[in-house]
Amino acid sequence: MLSGFGRAFTIPDLRNKLLFTLGIIIIYRLGVFIPAPGISYGNVQQCLSNITATSGVYGMINLFSGGALLQLSIFALGVMPYITASIIVQLLRVVIPRFQQLHEEGAQGQTKLTQYTRYLTIALAVLNATTIVTLAQNGTLLQGCTLPIIPDDGILNILLIITTLTAGTGVVMWLGEQITEKGVGNGMSLLIFTSIAASFPTAFGSILQTQGWGIFAAVMGIGLLVIVAVVFVEQSQRRIPVQYAKRMVGRRTIGGTSTYIPLKVNMAGVIPLIFASSMLMLPGLIAQFNTPSDGRQPPEWVNWINTYLITGDHPLYMIMYFLMILGFAYFYVSITFNTEEVAGNMKKYGGFIPGVRAGRPTQEYLTYVLNRITLPGATYLAVLALIPLIALVLFDANQNFPLGGASLLIVIGVGLDTIKQIDAQLQQRNYEGLLR
Fold first, then answer.
1. Which CATH number characterizes residue 329's domain?
2. Is 107 exposed, middle or buried, given 0-12, 13-18 or 19+ CB atoms closer than 10 A?
3. Cβ of 197: how many Cβ atoms within 10 Å?
4. Quick check: 154 pLDDT over 90?
5. Number of domains observed in the structure of the chain
6. Total-model pTM
7. Torsion of CA 418, 424, 427, 429, to 10 degrees
8. Which of 19, 211, 368, 425 has the most CB within a 10 Å radius?
9. Range of the domain at 352
10. Is 416 exposed, middle or buried (0-12, 13-18, 19+ CB in 10 A)?
11. Residue 403: inside a domain, yes or no?
């Protein structure tokens, strides 16, 4: 594989794409460390040195932003507003017929949907930035810190910070699109990959410093086994054979070919984890806004939420997280893979599954198979998501433990996809790729 990467840099076109992608990633990482105007950088760094975990309602956003959120940098929101907007637009296809029509129109319709996603991203960025500034003002963003994060809480300064964070989201969105158009791989996915991978050295160093070499070696060994298991499951698929009957179009005979429909075991990807985490974040966010800032005792329901639904080390939290991932996996797969549409397209072009009649029986068969393979895929996702929570109990790690959950799934998935794209471009030019 190393020789394959060497060949990639000998091809001018591919070398330029790789260097362009690397340059965008460097710019993105530099923006993580540039503080937003109006933020006391010294106080933020002092507060960060006194807290040991990025827990709380914005722990996942901080992870996806590469630590930029808790540093309140210009890229503090990272790619989360864009991810959320993309998911919302995708789900709205079920509710709004116009969105479904645009999806079926091909490239022109996809361009329109992308434009809607951009507008929604900016709107969500304004909302998220306002929430973050509010949390920074009342001291709940960096819990346990008494230093003023925003020394000047005037309206103009607050508006300046919100505008800067929103503009940073727009820049991150533009950087991701530039990678997709002119670089290698999916831009947004690579930026998330970079943010998560940047947290690995700190996480591993924390385990080594607090637990010693024995626990560190055990964690690394378990990590290798988890990585192998994730790669195996992510590459697993159920192939449903499809045959197309021969037919005459003018003087030409088309069809008569055999192919298959690849159904991945994990068709939902990391989306169920994001859905479940977001839903479990809401009670904590509501509790934070209802916690008195003058030292008075909070309401009983706030104490209950802080006890059971915040830290992630309580069995009730783990059970709810597990069940919500299962439910969201089935929900998301049923929306993204429309068995009725697939069966209709097969019937339209003369395709059929051997032993299954076209039309309604084909749809029922696809639904049956999809439900069967979604169960192990959803269970695999739920178990993977619980690894950081179990590490939180066993190793006193934080909730962003790198060897599990959304972080490991995204890193492996994006890595495999990027390597496949580089391999495909090498094969187009050299007939020999990275993978053998």
1. 1.10.3370.10
2. exposed
3. 16
4. no
5. 1
6. 0.79
7. -90
8. 425
9. 211-416
10. middle
11. yes
